[in-house]
Structure formats: structure tokens, C-alpha cells
Amino acid sequence: MAAVVGVYLGNTSASLAIHKAGRTDIIANDAGDRVTPALVAYSGKDKAIGLPAKQGLIRNSKNTMARACKIIGLRFSDDTVHQEVQDSGCKIVDKDGKPFYEVQLNEKPTLFSPKEVIKMIFEKLLEISQANGGNDIEEAVITAPLHFSNEQKTEIREAAEDAGFDVLRVISQPAAAALAYDIGQNDRNSLRRVLVYRLGGTTLDVTVLVVNGGMYRVIATESDTALGGRKFDELLAHHLAAEFQRQWKLDVRSNNRAMAKLRASAENCKHILSSRDTATCAIESLCEGIDMNTKVSRARFESLCWSLFQQSLSSIDRVLSTANISRNNIDQVVLVGGSTRIPKIKQLVQEYFAEKEVCQTIDPDSVLAYGAAIQASLLQGREEQINDDIEAECTSKAISVMLEEAEARLCPIIPKHSPIPLRKTHNFTTSVDNQETVCLSVYEEDDDMANNAGKTLVAKVVLEDIPPMAKGQAEIIGTFHIRRDGSLHIHLMEKTSEKSADINIDCCT
């Protein structure tokens, strides 16, 4: 039987694991690294993917497309896209309401969608997979962030399939992390609560899972997009800039090229400080022909980042509060993401959970790919005694509605992380005498709180020909049915006349 692979593709990096001949292994790329930078760059007509693109980032940032997973499947008007437009060295433009990267290809401006960029990265990952497991490798399981909508998951799947993968399933990152450590798979009669602490390149995600009967179900999650490995790099880079200014009376913080060099050196120092007490920052010709050569201690790095470390613990506090459980009720903690290698982070998380088991033996950069490879092996039928369904499908966003004729107040209908398929009913009524029409606006929300902030309008349902009656007398029954594929069917019916209106929303949540 052919080997299968697990694929993790994040905002800044990608990794692979292969299941072959009864065992799962993390595999390296052609440079010998377990992590491949999630970058695509053009120089003239030449294309670079992964490490070569990263190596040319300082001099070619305008033609280097980065963090495509962050904006795939989003509208250009989305706040996340607006932030990325500001942060990206490569120009991001609006085309038909969607974000596109603009690069110079053969000296001509050329547009690439995030999906096209991700496809090119998947092509590179397939090449790496086949170099390690044979040319017959095609089947794969891919991980996706928990907050991804069905539309985003579909685009990721299609990008992988266009690249040549046969995608068996797309699973959530927290489920992949728990599966990597086989949590709850051997004793299916036990109930366990797991906290997945994922500190990636651009985001901190903290998720609480309940494992029951071998199934993983999310009960709460907390994301901090202002915290990630790049934030540590930025703090250290500015510290190095201040040190250079102290030595040479030159302020390089407004020099984009010099700051890019400092960020690259800061990232390297951060990696070294995970295993050593000191690291050297050596940069040739940082500014005006002057070299930089200075040392950074682990103690100094921890002092610079202390507020961020505490910020990450606050995210744990919030997710436990949302889940309505105490830290003592958590059975296991799983560390995910390269930044969890930072010794102080590991120490603080371990101290926070006292005597609880903190799972960190699998490479944190590759643990999601490892779990995905295990899931791929189960779907391929290698271990038939284990059910291949390990993750309960849940809504990624909350669903709320608003009657336009009434007060502008959102009414929560379906909470975030509700298991699907599901069906719910809710009664509505008229707000004025002899009202003949009601218009129900349907919104997605990242949070379960019914307020007017952070909501996205996804549809409107109009019910007409309501019989004349006093306000509040009409009984309008709303039925909300989310199918397993994530689509939402809404049915409104006025009880007396049986007048009704329906709408189907594909990939709503």
C-alpha cells in the first residue's frame, strides 16, 4: 500500500509527515530542514518557493508573496486583509472584491490570488513528499485553522488538489495536535479535557477539546493575532537597533532594508537562545558601511518579551473561563508551534498547569503534520479497529439574526462550536400594526455575543403577505438547519396563513 502524508501549511511555514510501512515520520525538504517557509517569490521570470524565497526576501520583498493562508477565501474589505495590506512587503490589490498579490513578472505587473500562491507551495510539498516516499504518493490529510469557514477549507482543499494531492480530509489543527499524541484513542470509555497551546509565526491559538469515545470536540478557543513568533523577532530587532544607535549614533529604525536585516538576525538569535544562553548578532554593512556585532543573552531576550509571555497566559485564562472549567480540570496540554521552543514559555505553561502532563516530545513545528499523517493512515484503512472519524464537525462561527423592522438588536441563534448537523427553531413576530412583510438579516460572528461589532452579513430572508393584525400577534416560526457540509437552510413561516420563505446558504460556517 502506498505511503500517505500529513500536511501542515500555516501563515509562515509548512511541514510534512509521512506514514509508511506502519510508522509515521516527519520528513525534511531538499535543504534538510523539517520546516519549509511558506513563501513564493519572482525575480524576473524566475520563481522561488520556500527557503530560496526567504533568502532573497530582504532584497526582493516587493515580489515575495507571504502569509497567503491568512487571507485565502476572504473579501478585500475584511479587516484581516486590510491589516495584511499594511504589513505585506508585496503589494496586495483589490480585484472584483477579493485580494490579489501584485508582483513584477518579466517586468510586467502580474496578479496572483492567495489560492494560486498556496497551490505553488503545495506543488513544492508534493515534490518533497514524493522524494521521500515515492512517486506514487498522492493521498494526504491537510490541517486548517479552527476559525476557517467552509469556503476557506474548500479553497485550501482545491489548491492542494490542483497541485496534485488527493485530499482525503481537511481536519482542524487542534484535532491534529491531539491525534499526534494519540490522546483518547486507546481508552475510548474515558473522557479527557485537553488544552492545545499553539504559538505560531503570527498568531496564538489556545483551544480546549473534550475527548470522548475517541472523538474530539472543541468547546472553547481563544485567538490573539497580535502575538506570535514575528512579534518576538520585532521586539528583539528594535532592541538591536537601539544598541546600534547607542554604539554608532545612527538610528536605523526608519531604514527598511536595515530593519529587514535586523529582523532576520533577530529570528536567528531567537532560535539559538532556545538552546544556548547567548547568541551573536553579526550583520555586515548594516548602515553606511558599518557592521554590527553584538551579543544577546537569554535573560535579556526574556526581559524584552516578558509582557508577551504574560499576554499568552491571559489567553489561557480567557479560554478556560469561556469553557467554564478550571485549570485543574485539564488532563493534558499539547504545545504546538516553533515559538513553544522558547524555554520561558515552556516553563510558564508547565507552572500554570502544575502537575499536568505537557506534551512536547514531537517537534512542535511538525506536530500538526504528524497528527494529519496518522489521520491519513486511518482513512486509508491501515488500522481498521480504529474509527476513522476522530473529529466532531462543529460550526466555526456563531450565527445571529436581526429583524430589520424591529430594534437593531442581534438575536443569537447558533453558538460558535456547535456540533453539526443541527436544527434549531426560533419564534419571531411583527413590530408594528398590520405589518405585511418582515426581513430577517443573517449574520456570522466570530464571538457568541450578540452585538453589532465583528459581524458579517451573509444573507437576508424576506417573508411577505403576512395577514393584517396587531403588532406582536403574528407568530413567525424560523427554522435553522445546518447540514454536515456547513450549508445553512432557513425556513420562515407565519403560522396562521402558512405563508413561508426559504433560503439556502452554501458553506455558511
UniProtKB/TrEMBL annotation:
Q: Which UniProt keywords apply?
A: ATP-binding, Chaperone, Cytoplasm, Nucleotide-binding
Instruction: Please give the Gene Ontology molecular function terms for this protein.
Output: ATP binding; ATP-dependent protein folding chaperone
Output a single Gene Ontology CC term carried by this record. cytosol
- One matching Pfam family is HSP70
Query: Where is it localised?
Result: Cytoplasm, Cytosol
Principal subcellular localization: cytoplasm
Gene3D superfamilies from the xrefs?
A: 3.30.30.30, 3.30.420.40, Actin, Chain A, domain 4, Substrate Binding Domain Of DNAk, Chain A, domain 1
Keyword Thylakoid (UniProt): no
Query: What is the protein's known function?
Result: Component of the ribosome-associated complex (RAC), a complex involved in folding or maintaining nascent polypeptides in a folding-competent state. In the RAC complex, binds to the nascent polypeptide chain, while DNAJC2 stimulates its ATPase activity.
Cite the record's note on assembly. Answer: Component of ribosome-associated complex (RAC), a heterodimer composed of Hsp70/DnaK-type chaperone HSPA14 and Hsp40/DnaJ-type chaperone DNAJC2.
Q: Which family does it belong to?
A: Belongs to the heat shock protein 70 family.
Q: What is this protein called?
A: Heat shock 70 kDa protein 14
Species in which this protein is naturally found: Pocillopora meandrina
